[in-house]
Amino acid sequence: MSHALVVGGTGMMGGVSCWLVGQGMTVSVVARRPHLPCVINPLAVDYRHTDTLQTAMKGAIAEQGAIDRAVCWIHGSAPDAPDAVAAVLDQQAIPVQYVHVLGSAGADPDNWQDGETAAFSQYENLSYQRVVLGFVAMGNGSRWLTHREISDGVIGAIQSRDAVTIVGQIRPWAMRP
Hints:
This protein is of the alpha/beta class. It has helices at about 15-20, 50-65, 80-90, 115-120, 145-160; strands at about 5, 25-30, 40-45, 70-75, 95-100, 125-135, 135-140, 140-145, 165.
């Protein structure tokens, strides 16, 4: 059975976690409140503490098997966590689909960089994808994406395996809510 890791897998990413369960995967979820309407393997750790995060991941691998897919929604308050996750996954020596979910600030046209992609290229066993969460324009205004729109967009990215997926829109940048 395949094993997926979802970091930040409740709240707006809860739909992704439950969809993966529905695909027949064992799903380990790193979250502060790991309560979902589907059966998951909760990893109740604070991902800002990378040593604890890596230890929990290694325990999940030992109990549930190798992780072959990771979906990571990690706030900027934990800048080392995406790399810490990648390092553990790369040690498994199996191919891993790594889906990195970023907020709209990751798409700022004045600061657009492929730094994340370049940083992850050091990991031989990871196939890195970036998902950027945008917004929805409505007449003269705009709104942020709903949890459903976010989950559906991330699921679409998982299925397509495109290197970059924009969920919603990021332009015109000045229309961001």
